Amino acid sequence: MNRRDSLKALGLTTLSAGLILEACKTDTPHKEEVAAVAPKTEDEAGRQAYEIERDKKLHAETFFTPAEMLTITVLGDIIIPKDEKSGSASDARVPEFIEFIVKDIPEHQTPMRGGLRWLDLQCLNRYGKIFTDSTKQQQFELLDMIAYPDKAKPEMAQGVAFFNRMRDLTASGFFTTKMGFHDVGYVGNAPNKWIGVPPDVLKQYGMENNI
Amino acid sequence: MSDLQIKKSSTTYDVVIVGSGAGGGMAGYVLANAGIKVLMLEAGVYFDPQKDSQQLKFSWESPRRGAGTTRPFGDFDAAYGGWQLEGEPYTTKDKTEFQWFRSRMLGGKTNHWGRISLRMGPHDFKAKDGLTDDWPITYDDVKPYYDKVDRLIGIYGTKENLENEPDGIFMAPPKPRLNELFIKKGAQKAGVNVIAGRGAVLTEALPGNKDRSPCFYCGQCGRSCKIYGDFSASSCLVIPAVKTGNLKVITNAMVREVLTNKEGIATGVSYINKEDMQEYQVNAKTVILGASAAESARILLNSRSAAHPGGLANSSGVVGRYLHDSTGSGASGFLPQLLDRKRYNEDGAGSVHIYSPWWLDNKKLDFPRGYHIEYGGGMHMPSYGFGRNIQDMNGRVPGRDGKMKEAGGYGVSLKDDYRRFYGTQFGMAGRGTAIARYDNYCEIDPQVVDKYGIPVLRFHYKWAAEEIKQAKHMQETFQEIMHNMGAIYNGPEGADTNYGLEAPGKIIHEVGTVRMGNDPKKSALNKWCQAHDCKNLFVVDAAPFVQQGDKNATWTILALSMRTAEFILQERKKLNV
Q1: Count of alpha carbons within 13 angstroms of residue B493, beta-carbon side
Q2: pLDDT tens, position by position, B437-464
Q3: pLDDT for res A31
Q4: How far is the C-alpha of B301 from the C-alpha of B82, rounded, in Å?
Q5: Contact between B408 and A3 using a beta-carbon 8 Å cutoff
Q6: pLDDT grade, residue A8 (50/70/90)?
Q7: Is the CB of residue A190 less than 8 Å from the CB of residue A21?
Q8: What are the pLDDT digits (tens) for A173-193?
Q9: What CA–CA distance (Å, rounded) separates B259 from B307?
Q10: Residue A81 and residue B69: Cβ atoms within 8 Å?
Q11: Chain A interface, best mutation among B415, B417, B419, by max A CB count within 10 A
Q12: Chain B residues within 8 A of A101 when measuring between CB atoms
């Protein structure tokens, strides 16, 4: 197989291979491309029948209540807000990802549901309102008690565990989208020739003589 | 089930091969190319990496972003199967632990393996410490076959002239990634030798082969390769063998037992067709098992007859015994020097770029056998788990303003931390020799059957002091290397976790269950992997291994299977089989 045949076997023309490279450089990701919620039929080659069935079933189910989804959305955007480089967690459809992943990996369900409830109860006791109805200032006051594990009070340990999980799921959901790839600068997953660490990088780290 | 019947074929094949992985695939390839009529039975489905691989998909093309929910090594990993298969249980005995990974597909586990391809050395075949049994063959007996496998399949590496790490016929290896340069420097300072990896990936065109293309460096060998740039038994052996017109594959054929006649000679096999759930029997002059070490032992133990009351090829009682997997223990950390590093495509090859062959003398240590270390790290494709436990990282280095930050957090500053830490992480994993022991075994569970009614395996496996002390040494070595690298890392795994020693089976290098030997009282197979008790029965997976070195099993499976297949061709000429 020569290079052209190889690319054909990959379902790529030299043009589309270039587009993949190009796509990684695009500055403005289209929102609808940010997260494919369900795989398309043509992407199902090599997927086992039970996997396709299982995904369909999970997509048809709903786990979180609308109120829970709202809290997840607010929390997600506090964890990963929009900045000069990229959008927020909800811009990258992180809440939808979290809804899917807790159905896919059920051990997330109780800690997430219970954690959201724990958060609301803390707010009710302190501020007389659930988390999403509390003021921004109150929300941050509460989150500051659970977002920093080393300085959190022992009685807030359950909140710390919840927030660690919520932070991890938000990061997973955000940085695995096109927006997230672009943000973090991942430029791989495209045919190329690996010839080693670029010379300027070797020089930067004084590794010229160690390759 | 009222219409259940046994369907007997009137055809007699020259050879029937059970399994299509490295062992079965290679035997099928050699025999079919020599004009022998071969039937291959595979318990799983058809799989052609060209059509079925998930290669080059982006994380967002998986609703779980690559998480390992249905595929243990991630949503894009090639392996169909895993640690548990629905309706196909296995059990353990005496509260011991064993994890059994099964890939039910053409090519088996070779579709997703790490392609790390190490030859066993002279001292692996004949150990210097006298602790374990010698193989009935030496490195010199196997060397010509390793050479032929290198040429047929393709492998990268470097000539090093190390006594027990024999060189092969190598293509140029991929250069180290940045993190790996730091690892190499740190390891060398600790006196640990680091050399180029040895992987079954084409870094150059394979002479004489028009079906396979050289690697284009996506780093995704675990998904299997659409252009056959790496070795899978499906793409490189079975599919080409089918093209000879001499090999027929039946997929979804779950073998129950080997059939024998009154004289105890194998006459064929009995299997369940998983599509119509009927029982089939096929005839063959020669039967070759390559179903995987544990599965081949299971088939033999389930093949009981008047001539073979303890199971086929088992008059010695060793079938299922001497089960051993490699030891495994790992460590990871991050390099604060690499915060905010420059971005470029660092996917590289999907096998290791560097590794450390065993570098010490066990006579000076408190454990008898060595290990090698596999390394990796860099700017990989973000997938499920990206940035996990950032609270364990971002409080340990100064922020952009030079001040230490409180670990954890949220907001713009946290978002920036994910960027800053991207590509700074690395990992290292020891893979060591575990001692083959009579008391570590699999046997037929007297009470449990799978959904096909086939009695299942029951495992009994315990690590001993030799393996635990080796894992302790791994942890100490990792700490020293990471210290030398200027890395940030956690303390070593301690006695409470057996020094991070993985459960038996987890490294998926299980071997030894149908061992070779010259003495029929102590071994099941002779030096050609031919059953002492049944001359037209051969085993070509990792079951014949007497004692595995710290080397990953695949290259030795391929070499031994090729050697056995050529022996079968010679014996056929002499009309012996």
Answers
A1: 24
A2: 999 999 999 999 999 999 999 999 999 9
A3: 42
A4: 23
A5: no
A6: low
A7: yes
A8: 999 999 999 999 999 999 999
A9: 11
A10: no
A11: B415
A12: 64-65, 67, 384
Domains of chain B (ranges; CATH) run 1-48+77-154+231-325+440-462+510-577 (3.50.50.60), 155-228+327-382+422-432+464-500 (3.30.410)
* A118 vs A155: CA distance, rounded Å: 12
Decide if pLDDT at B502 tops 80: yes
Question: What is the nearest CA distance from A128 to chain B, expressed in angstroms?
Answer: 24
Q: What is the pTM of this model?
A: 0.94
Burial class (CB in 10 A: 0-12, 13-18, 19+), A29: buried
Sequence-separated (6 or more) residues with CB below 8 Å from residue B93? B443, B458, B459, B460
ipTM: 0.95
B51:A6 CB<8 A = no
Q: How far apart are CA B532 and CA B313, in angstroms?
A: 7
Residue B63 has its nearest CB partner, among A38, A168, A171, at A38
Determine contact, residues B250/B41, Cβ cutoff 8 Å: yes
A51 neighbourhood in chain B, CB within 8 Å: 70
Chain A within 8 Å of B333 (Cβ-Cβ)? Answer: no
Q: Nearest CB to A175: which of B57, B63, B418?
A: B418
> Which residue type is seen at A162?
F
Domain definitions of chain A by residue range: 30-186
CB contact under 8 A, A189 and B218: yes
Q: From B384, which residue of chain A is nearest by alpha-carbon distance?
A: A172
B230 touching A (Cβ < 8 Å): no
Tell me how far CA of residue B367 lies from CA of B223, B288, B465, B503, in angstroms: 36, 37, 8, 19
In Å, how far is A149's CA from the nearest CA of chain B?
Answer: 7
- DSSP structure string for B182-211: HHHHHHHHTT---EE--BSB-SS--TT-SS
Q: CA-CA distances (angstroms) from residue B228 to A10, B45, B115, B360, B573?
A: 11, 19, 13, 37, 34
Residues of B in contact with A150 (CB under 8 A): 395, 406-408
